[in-house]
Design a protein that fits this description.
This protein has about 300 residues and is an alpha/beta fold. The protein is built from 10 helices and 12 strands. Helices cover about 50% and strands about 20% of the residues. It binds magnesium ion (MG).
Protein backbone atom coordinates (compact mmCIF):
# COMPACT_ATOMS: atom_id res chain seq x y z
CA UNK A 1 0.00 0.00 0.00
CA UNK A 2 0.94 3.60 -0.33
CA UNK A 3 3.08 4.15 2.77
CA UNK A 4 5.56 6.48 1.19
CA UNK A 5 4.89 9.87 2.77
CA UNK A 6 7.40 11.52 0.42
CA UNK A 7 4.99 11.05 -2.43
CA UNK A 8 2.19 12.65 -0.44
CA UNK A 9 1.49 16.32 -0.39
CA UNK A 10 -0.43 17.78 2.53
CA UNK A 11 -2.18 21.14 2.47
CA UNK A 12 -2.35 22.76 5.92
CA UNK A 13 -5.14 25.33 6.24
CA UNK A 14 -5.06 27.49 9.38
CA UNK A 15 -5.51 31.20 9.99
CA UNK A 16 -2.83 31.24 12.77
CA UNK A 17 0.65 31.61 11.22
CA UNK A 18 2.35 29.94 14.20
CA UNK A 19 0.07 26.87 14.00
CA UNK A 20 0.58 26.59 10.27
CA UNK A 21 4.35 26.85 10.33
CA UNK A 22 4.81 24.46 13.25
CA UNK A 23 2.56 21.83 11.71
CA UNK A 24 4.22 22.14 8.29
CA UNK A 25 7.69 21.73 9.82
CA UNK A 26 6.65 18.66 11.79
CA UNK A 27 5.02 17.08 8.74
CA UNK A 28 8.10 17.78 6.64
CA UNK A 29 10.27 16.08 9.26
CA UNK A 30 7.93 13.08 8.98
CA UNK A 31 8.63 13.02 5.23
CA UNK A 32 5.57 14.77 3.82
CA UNK A 33 5.56 17.53 1.25
CA UNK A 34 3.52 20.49 2.49
CA UNK A 35 1.93 23.71 1.44
CA UNK A 36 -0.18 26.03 3.53
CA UNK A 37 -3.05 28.44 3.26
CA UNK A 38 -4.11 31.17 5.70
CA UNK A 39 -7.77 31.17 4.70
CA UNK A 40 -10.45 29.05 3.09
CA UNK A 41 -10.32 31.24 0.00
CA UNK A 42 -6.58 30.75 -0.41
CA UNK A 43 -6.97 26.99 0.17
CA UNK A 44 -9.71 26.82 -2.49
CA UNK A 45 -7.42 28.52 -4.97
CA UNK A 46 -4.42 26.29 -4.16
CA UNK A 47 -6.49 23.11 -4.41
CA UNK A 48 -7.75 24.28 -7.79
CA UNK A 49 -4.16 24.68 -8.97
CA UNK A 50 -2.81 21.44 -7.58
CA UNK A 51 -4.79 18.69 -5.89
CA UNK A 52 -3.08 17.72 -2.61
CA UNK A 53 -3.05 14.15 -1.27
CA UNK A 54 -4.71 15.26 1.95
CA UNK A 55 -5.97 18.45 3.62
CA UNK A 56 -5.65 19.40 7.30
CA UNK A 57 -8.42 21.94 7.71
CA UNK A 58 -8.89 24.28 10.65
CA UNK A 59 -12.55 24.54 11.62
CA UNK A 60 -12.44 28.06 13.09
CA UNK A 61 -11.27 30.71 10.66
CA UNK A 62 -12.53 34.25 10.12
CA UNK A 63 -14.59 34.70 6.96
CA UNK A 64 -15.29 31.38 5.27
CA UNK A 65 -15.02 28.67 7.93
CA UNK A 66 -13.41 25.27 7.58
CA UNK A 67 -16.86 23.67 7.54
CA UNK A 68 -17.95 25.91 4.67
CA UNK A 69 -14.85 25.03 2.67
CA UNK A 70 -15.47 21.35 3.43
CA UNK A 71 -18.98 21.65 1.97
CA UNK A 72 -17.63 23.35 -1.16
CA UNK A 73 -14.97 20.69 -1.65
CA UNK A 74 -17.43 17.84 -1.19
CA UNK A 75 -19.74 19.45 -3.72
CA UNK A 76 -17.36 19.19 -6.65
CA UNK A 77 -16.30 16.00 -8.41
CA UNK A 78 -12.53 16.46 -8.32
CA UNK A 79 -12.44 16.85 -4.52
CA UNK A 80 -15.40 14.65 -3.60
CA UNK A 81 -13.07 11.95 -2.25
CA UNK A 82 -10.09 14.10 -1.22
CA UNK A 83 -9.05 13.03 2.31
CA UNK A 84 -9.85 15.89 4.68
CA UNK A 85 -9.01 15.86 8.38
CA UNK A 86 -10.56 18.68 10.39
CA UNK A 87 -8.53 20.39 13.08
CA UNK A 88 -10.50 21.86 15.94
CA UNK A 89 -9.28 23.73 18.99
CA UNK A 90 -12.47 23.27 20.89
CA UNK A 91 -13.77 20.25 22.66
CA UNK A 92 -17.15 21.27 21.28
CA UNK A 93 -18.65 18.02 20.10
CA UNK A 94 -21.08 19.79 17.76
CA UNK A 95 -18.11 20.88 15.60
CA UNK A 96 -17.01 17.28 15.35
CA UNK A 97 -20.50 16.08 14.47
CA UNK A 98 -20.90 18.82 11.85
CA UNK A 99 -17.52 17.99 10.34
CA UNK A 100 -18.19 14.26 10.08
CA UNK A 101 -21.71 14.81 8.75
CA UNK A 102 -20.31 17.34 6.29
CA UNK A 103 -18.05 14.69 4.79
CA UNK A 104 -14.77 15.08 6.73
CA UNK A 105 -12.82 11.84 6.91
CA UNK A 106 -11.65 12.45 10.46
CA UNK A 107 -10.76 15.11 13.01
CA UNK A 108 -8.00 15.92 15.49
CA UNK A 109 -8.03 18.43 18.32
CA UNK A 110 -5.46 21.09 19.14
CA UNK A 111 -2.88 20.86 20.60
CA UNK A 112 -2.07 18.27 17.98
CA UNK A 113 -0.66 14.96 19.11
CA UNK A 114 1.64 14.35 16.12
CA UNK A 115 1.93 10.51 16.26
CA UNK A 116 -1.86 10.27 16.44
CA UNK A 117 -2.24 12.70 13.52
CA UNK A 118 0.32 10.80 11.42
CA UNK A 119 -1.41 7.48 12.13
CA UNK A 120 -4.78 8.91 11.06
CA UNK A 121 -3.27 10.53 7.98
CA UNK A 122 -1.74 7.22 6.90
CA UNK A 123 -5.06 5.46 7.33
CA UNK A 124 -6.91 7.98 5.17
CA UNK A 125 -4.21 8.09 2.51
CA UNK A 126 -4.34 4.30 2.33
CA UNK A 127 -8.12 4.33 2.02
CA UNK A 128 -7.99 7.03 -0.66
CA UNK A 129 -5.54 4.95 -2.66
CA UNK A 130 -7.84 1.91 -2.36
CA UNK A 131 -10.81 3.95 -3.54
CA UNK A 132 -8.81 5.13 -6.56
CA UNK A 133 -7.90 1.54 -7.38
CA UNK A 134 -11.53 0.42 -7.03
CA UNK A 135 -12.75 3.23 -9.27
CA UNK A 136 -10.28 2.32 -12.00
CA UNK A 137 -11.20 -1.37 -11.69
CA UNK A 138 -14.85 -0.35 -11.92
CA UNK A 139 -14.14 1.51 -15.16
CA UNK A 140 -12.32 -1.55 -16.54
CA UNK A 141 -15.22 -3.81 -15.59
CA UNK A 142 -17.73 -1.44 -17.17
CA UNK A 143 -15.66 -1.48 -20.36
CA UNK A 144 -15.42 -5.28 -20.37
CA UNK A 145 -19.16 -5.54 -19.82
CA UNK A 146 -20.01 -3.28 -22.79
CA UNK A 147 -17.42 -4.10 -25.44
CA UNK A 148 -16.41 -7.18 -27.38
CA UNK A 149 -12.94 -8.32 -26.40
CA UNK A 150 -11.74 -9.32 -29.86
CA UNK A 151 -13.08 -6.56 -32.08
CA UNK A 152 -13.49 -3.67 -29.64
CA UNK A 153 -17.04 -3.17 -30.98
CA UNK A 154 -20.10 -3.09 -28.71
CA UNK A 155 -20.99 -6.58 -27.55
CA UNK A 156 -24.37 -8.20 -28.06
CA UNK A 157 -25.81 -6.90 -24.80
CA UNK A 158 -24.79 -3.27 -25.20
CA UNK A 159 -25.70 -3.08 -28.89
CA UNK A 160 -29.09 -4.57 -27.96
CA UNK A 161 -29.54 -1.81 -25.39
CA UNK A 162 -28.47 0.82 -27.96
CA UNK A 163 -31.03 -0.52 -30.47
CA UNK A 164 -33.74 -0.49 -27.81
CA UNK A 165 -32.97 3.17 -26.99
CA UNK A 166 -32.49 4.15 -30.65
CA UNK A 167 -35.86 2.66 -31.66
CA UNK A 168 -37.63 4.42 -28.85
CA UNK A 169 -36.03 7.75 -29.74
CA UNK A 170 -36.86 7.35 -33.45
CA UNK A 171 -40.51 6.62 -32.68
CA UNK A 172 -40.82 9.53 -30.26
CA UNK A 173 -39.40 11.93 -32.83
CA UNK A 174 -41.07 10.31 -35.85
CA UNK A 175 -37.67 9.69 -37.46
CA UNK A 176 -36.76 6.71 -39.61
CA UNK A 177 -34.23 4.12 -38.42
CA UNK A 178 -32.65 1.08 -40.07
CA UNK A 179 -30.86 -2.05 -38.91
CA UNK A 180 -28.36 -4.17 -40.78
CA UNK A 181 -27.47 -7.72 -39.82
CA UNK A 182 -24.24 -8.96 -41.39
CA UNK A 183 -22.82 -12.41 -41.54
CA UNK A 184 -19.37 -13.30 -42.82
CA UNK A 185 -19.82 -15.86 -45.63
CA UNK A 186 -18.22 -19.31 -45.22
CA UNK A 187 -16.39 -18.30 -42.05
CA UNK A 188 -16.10 -21.92 -40.98
CA UNK A 189 -13.95 -22.56 -44.06
CA UNK A 190 -11.61 -19.70 -43.12
CA UNK A 191 -11.15 -21.24 -39.68
CA UNK A 192 -10.78 -24.79 -41.03
CA UNK A 193 -8.29 -23.83 -43.72
CA UNK A 194 -6.21 -21.16 -41.95
CA UNK A 195 -6.76 -21.82 -38.24
CA UNK A 196 -8.55 -19.87 -35.55
CA UNK A 197 -5.83 -17.22 -35.12
CA UNK A 198 -6.34 -16.17 -38.76
CA UNK A 199 -10.10 -16.43 -38.25
CA UNK A 200 -9.81 -13.97 -35.35
CA UNK A 201 -7.64 -11.63 -37.43
CA UNK A 202 -10.28 -11.69 -40.18
CA UNK A 203 -13.01 -10.80 -37.68
CA UNK A 204 -10.92 -7.89 -36.35
CA UNK A 205 -10.24 -6.57 -39.84
CA UNK A 206 -13.90 -6.93 -40.76
CA UNK A 207 -14.90 -4.99 -37.65
CA UNK A 208 -12.44 -2.22 -38.53
CA UNK A 209 -13.70 -1.94 -42.12
CA UNK A 210 -17.29 -1.99 -40.90
CA UNK A 211 -16.68 0.79 -38.38
CA UNK A 212 -14.85 2.86 -41.01
CA UNK A 213 -17.72 2.48 -43.50
CA UNK A 214 -20.41 4.04 -41.31
CA UNK A 215 -21.01 7.41 -39.64
CA UNK A 216 -19.97 8.20 -36.07
CA UNK A 217 -23.64 8.39 -35.15
CA UNK A 218 -24.26 4.81 -36.31
CA UNK A 219 -23.85 1.98 -33.81
CA UNK A 220 -21.85 -1.12 -34.70
CA UNK A 221 -21.80 -4.25 -32.58
CA UNK A 222 -20.73 -7.86 -32.70
CA UNK A 223 -23.90 -9.85 -32.35
CA UNK A 224 -22.04 -13.09 -31.83
CA UNK A 225 -19.59 -15.34 -33.68
CA UNK A 226 -19.19 -13.93 -37.18
CA UNK A 227 -22.44 -11.96 -37.04
CA UNK A 228 -22.52 -8.17 -36.73
CA UNK A 229 -25.29 -5.63 -36.37
CA UNK A 230 -25.40 -1.96 -37.37
CA UNK A 231 -28.01 0.54 -36.28
CA UNK A 232 -28.48 3.49 -38.64
CA UNK A 233 -30.44 6.34 -37.01
CA UNK A 234 -32.32 8.79 -39.27
CA UNK A 235 -31.97 6.39 -42.18
CA UNK A 236 -34.81 5.08 -44.33
CA UNK A 237 -34.91 1.79 -46.24
CA UNK A 238 -33.46 3.18 -49.45
CA UNK A 239 -30.54 4.89 -47.72
CA UNK A 240 -29.94 1.77 -45.61
CA UNK A 241 -29.59 -0.31 -48.79
CA UNK A 242 -26.99 2.15 -50.07
CA UNK A 243 -25.03 1.90 -46.79
CA UNK A 244 -25.26 -1.88 -46.89
CA UNK A 245 -23.92 -1.98 -50.45
CA UNK A 246 -21.08 0.33 -49.43
CA UNK A 247 -20.21 -2.01 -46.53
CA UNK A 248 -20.39 -5.04 -48.81
CA UNK A 249 -17.99 -3.31 -51.20
CA UNK A 250 -15.61 -2.25 -48.39
CA UNK A 251 -15.33 -5.87 -47.28
CA UNK A 252 -15.60 -7.85 -50.50
CA UNK A 253 -13.74 -5.35 -52.69
CA UNK A 254 -10.27 -5.95 -51.23
CA UNK A 255 -9.03 -9.34 -49.96
CA UNK A 256 -7.99 -9.41 -46.28
CA UNK A 257 -4.21 -9.37 -45.78
CA UNK A 258 -3.22 -12.16 -43.41
CA UNK A 259 0.08 -13.84 -42.56
CA UNK A 260 -0.81 -16.77 -44.78
CA UNK A 261 -1.60 -14.47 -47.75
CA UNK A 262 -4.65 -12.52 -48.91
CA UNK A 263 -8.03 -14.04 -48.06
CA UNK A 264 -11.11 -13.02 -50.03
CA UNK A 265 -13.98 -12.32 -47.67
CA UNK A 266 -17.61 -11.56 -48.48
CA UNK A 267 -20.62 -10.75 -46.34
CA UNK A 268 -24.33 -11.28 -46.59
CA UNK A 269 -26.46 -8.45 -45.23
CA UNK A 270 -30.09 -8.31 -44.16
CA UNK A 271 -31.71 -4.91 -43.73
CA UNK A 272 -34.86 -3.80 -41.96
CA UNK A 273 -36.23 -0.30 -41.60
CA UNK A 274 -38.60 1.65 -39.43
CA UNK A 275 -40.29 4.34 -41.50
CA UNK A 276 -40.84 7.80 -39.97
CA UNK A 277 -43.96 7.72 -37.82
CA UNK A 278 -44.14 3.92 -37.88
CA UNK A 279 -44.36 1.94 -34.67
CA UNK A 280 -42.52 -1.28 -34.01
CA UNK A 281 -40.92 -3.15 -31.10
CA UNK A 282 -37.10 -3.26 -31.40
CA UNK A 283 -36.93 -7.05 -31.27
CA UNK A 284 -39.26 -7.21 -34.30
CA UNK A 285 -36.92 -4.96 -36.28
CA UNK A 286 -34.00 -7.22 -35.37
CA UNK A 287 -36.04 -10.26 -36.28
CA UNK A 288 -36.85 -8.75 -39.69
CA UNK A 289 -33.18 -7.95 -40.39
CA UNK A 290 -32.33 -11.50 -39.37
CA UNK A 291 -34.90 -12.95 -41.75
CA UNK A 292 -33.64 -10.74 -44.58
CA UNK A 293 -30.10 -11.99 -43.79
CA UNK A 294 -31.35 -15.55 -44.06
CA UNK A 295 -32.84 -14.71 -47.46
CA UNK A 296 -29.50 -13.20 -48.58
CA UNK A 297 -27.73 -16.42 -47.56
CA UNK A 298 -30.30 -18.59 -49.25
CA UNK A 299 -30.08 -16.57 -52.48
CA UNK A 300 -26.35 -17.27 -52.78
CA UNK A 301 -24.56 -14.99 -50.24
CA UNK A 302 -22.43 -11.86 -50.93
CA UNK A 303 -25.56 -9.75 -51.31
CA UNK A 304 -27.92 -7.38 -49.55
CA UNK A 305 -31.60 -8.13 -48.97
CA UNK A 306 -34.16 -5.72 -47.52
CA UNK A 307 -36.85 -7.34 -45.40
CA UNK A 308 -40.04 -7.78 -47.38
CA UNK A 309 -38.27 -7.51 -50.70
CA UNK A 310 -36.28 -10.75 -50.60
MG1 LIG B 1 -8.39 29.00 13.56
Amino acid sequence: MNREPRKCHVLVVDDEPANRDLLCRRLQRAGYGTSSAASAEEAWRLIGERLPSLVLLDVCMPGVSGLDLLARLRGQTSTRLLPIIMVTSMSDSSDVVNAIQGGANDYVTKPIDLPVLLARMETHLRMASLVTQLESQGRILAHLAAFDDLTGLYNRRSVGAAIQAGCQRAQERHHPLALLMLDLDHFKEVNDRHGHAVGDAVLKELAARLAAAVRDSDVVGRHGGEEFVVMLPDTDARAALAVAERIRGAIGGTPFACNSGPIPVTVSIGASALAAGESVVPCQLLEEADRALYEAKRAGRDRVVLFGQG
